[in-house]
Amino acid sequence: MTEKPKTVQRHLTPAASPSDLRHPAADVFFEVFSLARMRGELLGETLLQPGQLLQQAAGGACFHVIQDAGCQLRLNGTDETTHLVPGDILFVPHGQAHQLHSAADASPDLPARITSGVFRFEGGCGQALIQGLPGVLQVSCQGEDPSDLIGSREWLSLTVAAMQKEVRNPSIGSTIMLSRIIDLMFIWAVRHWLAHAPQGISGWIAALRDPLIGQALALLHAEPGAAWSVERLAGLVNQSRSNLAQRFTHLVGQSPMRYLMHWRMQLAGQRLQTSSLRISQIAEQLGYESEAAFSRAFRREFGVAPSEYRSQA
């Protein structure tokens, strides 16, 4: 008699969500980056022969991927030179004018191949992401940490290869693929900079790595509609009210309650554009006692009433 096959029970578990990750502020970055709506696009490739310059005028934020041979970067108005090697990725997040020129020992038989592009943030949180970033974000195959070197080299190589594949063999969805690859490269560049940046730097992203302020930001983002006060927030992170307020303002650039109000308004704008919730429901979700109070705060932030903002979406 033939035995019946045994049934194997397989339980699928979802991958870790941002809130499951070890860093307490990981979900904060995820939320802000999502609302910032980064959009990137490629401009093309340049072969940089010995003695040639690639000049980028001031304007939007841009990036370059260096391949085949090294080159040098200089921001206009500065004397500082950044040396780049094949495989390097660099972002100029503030859009300063700059020059890329061939290395002194460049070979005419192997010019530097530079893939360039631009990126922008279409959402209101974009400024928070670039606030405090240096003029140049560089992810290099050369570094001081051997373990980081190995991981970076492998990841950069695969990412650049994926980008080149989409450029040379475009297909359905290539524009979306390239934009997402640029997203990944930007996040990697920010993480790389943050891991090597000196202590004491300020800015929203730098605040995320601070154990105290990172925890405070995570609490505010976890419950944006709660009845927050500086006293309550300070108690949850075991700090005095004055110490928390001073440290938060120094790193983030605004007070805890001002930051919370701004974040609530960003969430409100998103929900007005993407949901069918009534304005009164959004107001209640975000901690406002009345629709009128919410509307006044919204108008101060965006210059228009919530209903008008929704109609413009």
Structural account:
The chain is an alpha+beta fold. The chain folds into two domains: 21-196, Jelly Rolls; 210-312, Arc Repressor Mutant, subunit A (Orthogonal Bundle), CATH 1.10.10.60. The chain has helices at residues 26-36, 126-130, 146-168, 174-196, 204-208, 211-222, 230-236, 241-252, 256-274, 279-285, 291-302, 306-312, and strands at 38-48, 53-56, 62-67, 71-75, 81-84, 89-92, 98-102, 112-121, 137-139. Helix 3 runs antiparallel to helix 4 and helix 9 (256-274) crosses helix 11. The longest helix is centred in the middle third of the chain and has 23 residues, at 146-168. The radius of gyration is 23 Å and the shape is globular. Residues 7-21 have low confidence and may be disordered.
What level of helicity do the residues show? Answer: 40-55%
* Range of strand content: 15-25%
Largest sheet: 5 strands, antiparallel
Computed over alpha carbons, the radius of gyration is 23 Å
What's the architecture of the largest domain in CATH terms?
Answer: Sandwich
Structure class = alpha+beta
Q: What is the name of the CATH superfamily of the largest domain?
A: Jelly Rolls
Report the average pLDDT across residues: 86
Q: Tell me, what's the shape?
A: globular
- The helix-strand sequence is HEEEEEEEEHEHHHHHHHHHH
Q: Keyphrases for this structure?
A:
globular, 5-stranded antiparallel beta sheet, Jelly Rolls, 313 residues, alpha+beta, 46% helix, Arc Repressor Mutant, subunit A
Question: What's this, in brief?
Answer:
The chain has helices at about 25-35, 125-130, 145-170, 175-195, 205-210, 210-220, 230-235, 240-250, 255-275, 280-285, 290-300, 305-310, and strands spanning about 40-50, 55, 60-65, 70-75, 80-85, 90, 100, 110-120, 135-140. It has about 325 residues and is of the alpha+beta class. The strands form two sheets. A five-stranded antiparallel beta sheet has the order 1-8-3-6-9. It has a four-stranded antiparallel beta sheet with strand order 2-7-4-5, with no helix packed on it.
